[in-house]
Design goal:
The chain has helices at 2-14, 21-27, 34-44, 83-95, 100-107, 113-121, 144-149, 161-167, 184-188, and strands spanning 19-20, 50-55, 58-63, 98-99, 125-130, 138-142. The chain is an alpha+beta fold. The chain has two domains: 2-73, Winged helix-like DNA-binding domain superfamily/Winged helix DNA-binding domain (Arc Repressor Mutant, subunit A, Orthogonal Bundle), CATH 1.10.10; 83-193, Winged helix-like DNA-binding domain superfamily/Winged helix DNA-binding domain (Arc Repressor Mutant, subunit A, Orthogonal Bundle), CATH 1.10.10. It is globular.
């Protein structure tokens, strides 16, 4: 098992993206138990500068959360999302799989193509399965890249309503299903990105 841990550790350090247990098993020699090796590695890295984290269906080595400030010098320039993109992303994350029509129903305004294109370009959302309804509309879901960016294991780990209100994403709404402070003019202009943002959804 010690040798299996070493091999799994080497693969994890050399892999930029999270790797699944199934894929890890295909890389390890026949007869190895990747799942057990990961359990052992996770315990061994507890309290260290890096930790073994589960991201979606994959595993990856990540900097310990309390040491993130040390990486600030290495961070890339942030790209803020427009309020329309922020709210669209939040709706997809909490209601996935969700269609464009459903997003528009929740927000109360139309969703521009540019808003969805921006989120697709960031690889924070992807196309899901088509609904078995008239027209077979495509659905949208968040990606593993989104989960990894925000340090989430799954969408179930998203903050609750209380946390969202504290962050300023949810405010008093004029009527159920409406997102605050949005007008048709804001969402129809694909080039506007100067609206107020929630720090949670900065790219």
């Amino acid at each position: 098992m010690a040798e299996q841990e070493r091999m799994a550790e080497a693969i994890l350090f050399a892999t930029a993206e999270p790797i699944s247990i199934k894929e890890l098993n295909t890389r390890l020699p026949h007869g190895c138990d990747a799942a057990q090796a990961l359990i052992s590695l996770e315990k061994r890295y507890e309290g260290r500068g890096v930790k073994l984290s589960k991201v979606g269906d994959g595993w990856a080595m990540r900097t310990a959360a309390d040491l993130g400030f040390l990486m600030q010098a290495e961070s890339v320039e942030t790209r803020k999302l427009s309020r329309a993109a922020t709210e669209t992303l939040a709706i997809i994350a909490y209601h996935q799989p969700v269609t464009r029509a459903e997003i528009e129903e929740i927000r109360g305004v139309s969703v521009s193509r540019g808003t969805l294109d921006q989120l697709l370009e960031l690889e924070w959302i992807r196309f899901g399965r088509r609904r078995m309804t008239p027209g077979r509309p495509v659905t949208f879901v968040v990606t593993q890249v989104f989960l990894d960016h925000f340090g989430l294991e799954s969408a179930r780990d998203l903050p609750g309503l209380k946390d969202l209100r504290a962050a300023g994403l949810l405010e008093s709404r004029p009527q159920p299903g409406m997102m605050p402070g949005i007008t048709d003019e804001e969402d129809n202009d694909d080039n506007r990105e100067e609206h107020g943002q929630d720090d949670m959804f900065e790219g």
